[in-house]
Model the fold of this input.
Amino acid sequence: MVAKKLTGGQIVCEALLNEGVDVIFGLPGGAILPFYGELSKYPKLRHVLVRHEQGAAHAADGYARSTGKVGVACATSGPGATNLITGLATAMMDSAPIVAITGQVGRAAIGTDAFQETDITGATLPVTKHNYLVMRAQDIGPTIHEAFHIARTGRPGPVLIDIPKDVFQEVAEYDFARDRIINLPGYNVRTTAIESQVEKAIELINEAERPAILAGHGVLISQAFDELRELAEKAEIPVVTTLLGISSFPEDHPLFVGFPGMHGLAYASLTLDESDLIVAIGSRFDDRIVGDPRRFAPNAKKIQIDIDPAEINKTLVADAPVIGDVKAVLRQINPKVKSTKHTAWVQRVEHLKAEHPSLKIRETDELLGQHVVRALSDVTKGDAIICTGVGQHQMWAAQHYKFTHANSWFSSGGLGTMGYEVPSALGAQIGNPDRLVWSICGDGGFQMTLMELATAVENKLPVKYAILNNNHLGMITQWQGLFYDGDYQAETYSGNPDFVKLAEAYGIKGIRVTRQDQLEAAIREANEHPGPVIVDFVIEKVDNVYPMIPAGQSVNELIEDPL
Amino acid sequence: MSNSTNGASGFMQRTIIALVQDRPGVLARISGLFRRRGFNIASLAVGRSERPGLSRMTFVVEGPAHVVQHVAAQLDRLVEVVEVQDITEKNIVWRELALIKVEASPHTRSEILELAGIFRVNVVDIGANSLTMEITGGRSKINSLIELLRKFGVKEVIRTGRVATLRGALSEGQEDGAFDGLQDEVSHYYTPTAGDSGSV
Ligand SMILES: Cc1cc2nc3c(=O)[nH]c(=O)nc-3n(C[C@H](O)[C@H](O)[C@H](O)COP(=O)(O)OP(=O)(O)OC[C@H]3O[C@@H](n4cnc5c(N)ncnc54)[C@H](O)[C@@H]3O)c2cc1C
Ligand SMILES: Cc1ncc(C[n+]2csc(CCOP(=O)(O)OP(=O)(O)O)c2C)c(N)n1
Ligand SMILES: [Mg+2]
Done:
């Protein structure tokens, strides 16, 4: 192909199309207007106008996690760009691939505290996998292709590209064949693992008597669902998933255990504790799982399969680190793993499940968050996409929704960003137009990003929002009750809006549920409604999430539900 | 030769060498990973390497070994970092250069020049009342010269910080990712601590 003479703004559009982009989430402003000025020439680039740039970043994140493609967000200089930061940090912590394009003040004004100037590459250094300030239009093409490559390969993450206004306007040549060539001597991603590492791992798996798999987010990122299942079934290994590894393994499978850790299921934590081998697959031994590293699964050897060498030996010493992509590594490992049975151990895990019924809901006539999630799970047969906010509702969602469809759980785990629930679901719905998307929201988090309801309406996105409305920052209430002697401060919402009326104000269907016997009908009604719906589930005000292992502790300190 | 003295923070000084792409912002990315943990960078030297487009950096930091090793692994994952090694425990050659400007009157000049001879340093500038010498060597050699010169009046000391390389084989030919799971050394220093963030 011959090189074309284009404006910088046009180069951005062409390069995005060449990367397979079909949707951009953004909101314009002066510095990025020259780019918006070109969009009408590129009708294949769908622009979704958000109400706040944080929403653009979370929507791009939801789109990315749910499709495996790179999500794109854009914003203007200064406040537009700074509004993206929470979304970038969220994506960074959870390894979600996003490319963010920001406008910058003109080149001559950079560094002068010009109107709406923020040093956004400086500000986002620690919350992006990489970022760029592009000072010549001819560099736009190569930079965009490099950025997509970095965002989606290896350990994925957000990449920001800052482009000064006059660079969008400058004319330069763009030649995809030339500009797509990547020269990054310092960026080598290992896909298959070194043979010696694989051998060591196989040896440990074949020797183990009480092995447990700890399947993490890396399984979803690598889309290694079949490979994970093959390993588990071939060597009969129970599967514990991390919070972000949820939906990596079918929850109706007999080897499925659940998620461990701070608010995980007691039997999942105990399975790890009693195991003699943990096969960690794309999970980074987060402190919410490990607690006190000296007392975490003390008798277990650890295999750690991860694409990021910096995760090895970070919180725990790995007996067998295996650096590579989960799917590729499991394809190396699986054929050499002995086909075997661990009958006694699997029985022991079943016994733990029976002894510690973490999913038992206490008897009450009140409506509890757990009831709502259980009903959602039953009515949707575990097949919906679930997004969540952060707090108690998130934990109940993780515990009680029985996922049967792979890659269906999107939640802010590492940063714990309240407000993720509203826009991420929009991105997931756009990426999966044929699937049912439910967002399980806290009344607190929902109010952090509810302005994006207008985006749902405008774009006819039929997301169903389930607000687990306890009129509280429930997780805060729980911590103050347990760790601050019940000194409750700033955790009650007395001024919440009427969420059904709020729905109406947006032209959205609103439903209120206050009793257990209304659950099923309301959820069906929401499912059948062709547009977005808000269901205001008015749940018990003060209720703790159990089980709980207090921060930095071990299974010995696990508090089961006092039922 | 011992290359690991204790720094002001009480932690052992560790020497890290890196080969990095020459692009704007590289230094900020690298120093950011130390700043984030509140580490002090005791010295830093950067310059073009033998490979076009790549620079070599040597930095000396103070911190617990396992933490510094983890930062080194995080450095290695920066897009522009081609290779990183913590060479503190390795067999290395390292040097530092200092320019020392000392007061020198006609009375003291000959005594100072005699000292300079013993230390085999070059005198690079002589003024009416001062004299500047250039010394290359290990840290203790430079420190002792400065101490000996104090009585004459040291006006300025400018030090480059350490540059270092492995003895024998150069670090060339090393695959990217010296940390690709070959971290037996890390577990050797490793002391687990409760790392929970205590956050909700
Ligand atoms: C209120 C709250 C409570 C929480 N409580 C719990 C809890 O009780 N239990 C719990 O488990 N979590 C809990 N979390 C979540 C926790 O903070 C972490 O986000 C989560 O445990 C991380 O899971 P992960 O390691 O699987 O995923 P990530 O943090 O996303 O890590 C993924 C790992 O996989 C690697 N990887 C990525 N792609 C690949 C690939 N292609 N091949 C190989 N490796 C790859 C990455 O390098 C990384 O090391 C809680 C969060 C909140 C907000
Ligand atoms: C942006 C942000 N601010 C503060 C917090 C701290 N925090 C964690 S959970 C929580 C309460 C969340 O309340 P809500 O969304 O109503 O969910 P609930 O716990 O009641 O289910 C808070 C404030 C956070 N995680 N994110
Ligand atoms: Mg709440």
